[in-house]
Amino acid sequence: MKLSIIIVNYNTGALTKACVESILAQENMKETEIIIVDNNSSDESIPFLGSDFPEVRLITNDENIGLAGGVNIGLKEATGEYCLILNPDIIVLPNAIKALKTFMDENPKVGMSGGKLLSPNGMLQYSCYRFYRLSTILYRRSWFGRTRAGKREIARFLMKDFDHQSVQDVDWLMGACLMVRAAALKKVGGMDERFFLYFEDLDWCRRFWEKGYRVTYVPHAQFSHYHQRSSKQSSFLGLIFNQAARHHLLSAAKYFWKYGFSSNPHHEV
């Protein structure tokens, strides 16, 4: 098996269906398996997806174990030389998967790659980043982000000085679309399940770099992403009532606790 595609589903049956349909529409997908891991959805995802895609392997969990946990279950079941992790809200555009596979074949030192993510209207989404600093959290979650220093730090984090049209090694990639080399996974391991939601992709990319593997942005592999920054909030009350924002801050705390507040990453683009 050349490629295993893993999608973690949680009450997103319709989106997952559209994602799978876009995968099946790709050319030369014979050596590909699709694994959907359902995190105990309360909607009709399981019968809906099971009946529509009998060729897809559907794994059901008894509880919601988070994105990292779901991905890891898929990785354990995968048999491909490469594993492509996709969010349910991804639509694979023509030849995108082939482009990532070809790039990985031609660059054996790359352990992980990700394509260019586009909004449905065709606008670029920032999906490759430089490593977080503690100040990045402060600037992105407060009015301090409007200051000159805040704007400078956010621009650094989002790689706004990069044209996003060239192949480029990056610190980390958004977890919505990641192709990983199975041989590298044996050394790096799966996602850290301490991150229930958010920062699991950042942590994973950092660990790939620490094991000597490159993490690379591949813009000629393009995917449409129905992304909403659900953790975004503009006030203290917004933080209190926004569960995603609370998860984001909790995961940030876990990340800095794991790596230290002042420690420099092994690699930084």
Outline the structure in words:
- The chain has 269 residues and is an alpha/beta fold.
- The protein has one domain (3-259): Alpha-Beta Complex (Spore Coat Polysaccharide Biosynthesis Protein SpsA, Chain A).
- Helices cover 38% and strands 22% of the residues.
- The protein has 10 helices and 12 strands.
- Strands 1, 2, 3, 4, 5, 6, 7, 9, 11 and 12 form a 10-stranded mixed sheet that branches. It has a two-stranded antiparallel ribbon with strand order 8-10.
- The longest helix has 17 residues, at 243-259.
- The protein is globular, with a radius of gyration of 18 Å.
- The protein starts with a strand and ends in a 10-residue tail after the last helix.
- Residues 233-237 have low confidence and may be disordered.
Quick gist of this model?
With 269 residues, the chain is of the alpha/beta class. Helices cover 38% and strands 22% of the residues. Strands 1, 2, 3, 4, 5, 6, 7, 9, 11 and 12 form a ten-stranded mixed sheet that branches. A two-stranded antiparallel sheet has the order 8-10.
Strands, helices and their partners?
Blueprint: E1 3-9, H1 13-24, E2 32-38, H2 45-52, E3 57-60, H3 66-77, E4 82-86, E5 90-92, H4 96-106, E6 110-118, E7 124-125, E8 128-129, H5 134-140, H6 148-157, E9 168-169, E10 172-173, E11 177-181, H7 182-188, H8 200-210, E12 214-225, H9 236-241, H10 243-259
Parallel strand pairs: 1-2, 1-4, 2-3, 6-12
Antiparallel strand pairs: 4-11, 5-12, 6-7, 6-11, 8-10, 9-12
